[in-house]
Amino acid sequence: MDSFLTYTVLGLVSGAGYAVAAGGLVVTYATSRIFNIGHGAVGMVMAFLFWELSAGRGLPAWAAVALVVLVVAPLCGALAERTVLRDLGEAPSDVALVVTVALMVALLGLAQTLWPPKPRPVSPFFEGHGFHLGSAFVGAHDLLTVAAGLLVAAGLSVLLRFTRTGAAMRATVHDPGLLALFGGRPAWTTSLSWAIGASLAALSGILLTPVVQLDYYGLTLLVISAYSAAMLGRLTSLPMTYLGALALGLLQSYTVGYLPTSGAFTGLRPAIPALFLFAVLVFLRSPQARLGRLRGAAGVAVASSRRAAPWAAVFVVAAAVAAAALPAEQALVVALGVVYGIVMLSMVLLNGYGGQVSLAQLTFAGVGAVVAARWASGSVLSLVAAAVVAAAVGALVALPALRLHGLYLALATLAFGQLMDKVVFQADFAFGYNGALDVRRLTVLGVRFGTEKAYLVLSAVVFALVGAGLLALRRGPYGRLVLALRDSETACATLGLNARLARVVLFAASAGIAGLAGALMGGLRQSVSASDFMVFNSLPLLLLAVACGVTSVTGAALGGAALAWLPKLQAQFPAAGGLLFLVVGVAAVALRSEPNGIAGWVFRFGRETVAARWTRLSGGPSPDAEPVDVGPVEAVGHAPR
Amino acid sequence: MPPGEPAADPAELLDPVAPGADGLRVSRVTVRFGGITAVDGASLHVRPASVTGLIGPNGAGKTTLFDVVTGLRRPETGAVLLDGDEVTRAPVHERARRGMARTFQRLEAFGSLTVRENVLVAAEIHATAGRALGRRAARARARDRADELLARTGIADYAAHRADTVPTGTARLLELARALAAEPRVLLLDEPSAGLSAPESAALAGLLRGLAGEGLAVLLVEHDMELVMGVCDTLYVLESGRIIAGGPPERVRADPRVRDAYLGPGEGAA
Lengths: 641, 270
Description:
The structure holds two protein chains of two kinds.
Chain A: H1 2-32, H2 39-56, H3 61-85, H4 93-114, E1 130-133, E2 136-139, H5 140-162, H6 164-174, H7 176-181, H8 186-212, H9 216-220, H10 222-232, H11 238-258, H12 268-283, H13 305-325, H14 328-353, H15 361-374, H16 380-401, H17 406-424, E3 436-438, E4 443-444, E5 447-448, H18 452-475, H19 477-487, H20 489-494, H21 499-525, E6 527-529, H22 535-549, H23 553-572, H24 576-593, H25 597-618, H26 630-635
Antiparallel strand pairs in A: 1-2, 3-6, 4-5
Chain B: H1 10-13, E1 24-33, E2 36-46, E3 50-55, H2 62-70, E4 77-82, E5 85-86, H3 92-97, E6 100-102, H4 115-128, H5 135-152, H6 168-181, E7 186-190, H7 198-213, E8 217-221, H8 225-231, E9 234-239, E10 242-247, H9 249-254, H10 256-263
Parallel strand pairs in B: 3-8, 3-9, 6-7, 7-8
Antiparallel strand pairs in B: 1-2, 1-4, 4-5, 9-10
Helix pairs in contact in B: 4-5, 4-6, 5-6
């Protein structure tokens, strides 16, 4: 009973912290219809800044809080809105999503660069002050947090419901043009909402730091907690959001208190919000479909098999030459790049063709690696099993989330990745607690791929096969279907397609490709652990894929190459976080102006120069300039806005 | 009962249905959004081999009724019957497979696909739905069907254009062709003539009559009164969610309640 009270107090305190963060999410979402996945990361950076100012620079705590929460955070929020996020609410949901993911990764890179890992003890406000409630001690910090949660919920309700600014905020989302006509200032209103959102993220980050510690990832994942709470209020109701946050805090506290704290359960605490999110997703009613947007997505011309085959051969031959020329350790790096390229192919299918975003493709690769290590290791069967099991897991993840909007799927994958990192991968049937698994190298039809060099060639062949398969798929009826599904799920359903099933199949196929890549990675590395497949590593992978061109197989090849090359660059310039930062900047900017990424430029350059040369040589129009598939060719450079 | 007879009496709609083709019946459907009743006990019958019009001022609940019929929205009360079978709780794709197709007032064409691909994908979905064998042959037939429909709706010239680049009127015809690719028995059209020129509208009227001649039950929501009066066998008037009149177009037009509600008091015939 004594401990029950303590856990309750602890739960209410975390819950109040989540409520503050969730309030910020609701305000920004209600005004701009952009869901900021980087919300937790904003809180994280601001908590670090607070630590820097108070513990590092000796500022009094109250002054540091005021400076961060009332000045720096709102300014940063408004600035981010002005520069990167404006108008994204009208963009396809996957574009807006990827940009906020870029924001999140950038903030992670920034924090790790400015504040390299080292222990940073954080003491609660008014340490030692407080009172006893029965046997439980309620600290002043706890009281402060609970009060902040209540104040934020009440204050935001009043703001949105009873003030002119609040009315303008609610109006902005419906019709900014109309608001402007009536003398409102939609641009200013949106900036204000982002300022408030960032400020609340900062406040919750600072308040929760004594609970979750000053940790890059722990605080960044605050977004899942805040999001689960906000979901209970359907991203609009502040009272329900507040209750949801408290319920989550309590649930987490009791789980930690009453479940065993050894082995695989160690990581359960941070995984509770993920579980909570899944529960909410399963029970939430699906919202009304969004109708009435006749606007296609961008894409590139799809190469015919006759044109794709030579390039596939060139790719494999280049890999073979590299394998022959490079020393083993460099061949390993290049082979890893090719394997990451296969993971990116899974993103081409899901995101480039299907318009859905998964934030946990590496987690599916991890599933594949575990299967390849545990079952028929070293045989081709293990590859098949890896793909099949990863696809099945993918289907399970997608089922509850796909009833809803693409956004929910992305968040569900983030939660899923977190759950796998902290709990499932730590279990004995997977990698074991902080363990590693040995994966045997493959023997195919009596040929043993025993070296890194052999694996480089093998990976290149698999990449070429999967890439050619994707292109064939994209050209055929399934490709049409995937694009149709992306453009209007509603219309597909009214034509007789079981749209939800089709989307689950798409997601599962993508997860299967990632699983296949994971199995290859296992064999290549020979020993893999959970840390190789951390969900946070999936994010730079996604951004790089988008920057290089997630709409094409070529983009995936470029992305894989870039990823193999980055660690080398990183070794030369030790400012590692800054590099990540750079990648993200490129991704975010490229995405807005060139939805087909670097590959899009390459294609356009190729077509223009080749066409020009052909015309000069033959004096007639080039056969290359005659598009096989008129639509997508025209789509090059067609920004989805 | 020959087509053209009124079916405004809801009690009649609940009569036991003769087996076989009966078209679409909507019986006492009510939909509420919060405190607002968008559709209020609406009943209507769309017979096979006929064009049935549904008119009413903006906000009368026409599109909401379409959404209920096609399964995009669940009614609070009431039933939807397709050829005598109740489908009120069936999912959207299930109704489509049983012969229902529609177009959208706010366009839902597949913008990333070409006009031809739009129709083709619909024909392919229809041809391969629930079919494990013979898909290849079915797809070949789907191609022929798609080209035939492009010609029939008069948009073959746009076949190679991306759907998000064509004029609104063409996109509407595209949606019609796409809906027809699913080989429906009941076809619901939500303002198909908006954005069409006068000759295109006339061609559409001819097309609709032709479809009815082939046995389709067509339900048409339309603001173009000339088109409505020209092609409809039966006309219903929806006002504030209620069906206030139903019957042959001439009789409905003469109804004083309709004049007051829809055409405005004191105005002559449209």
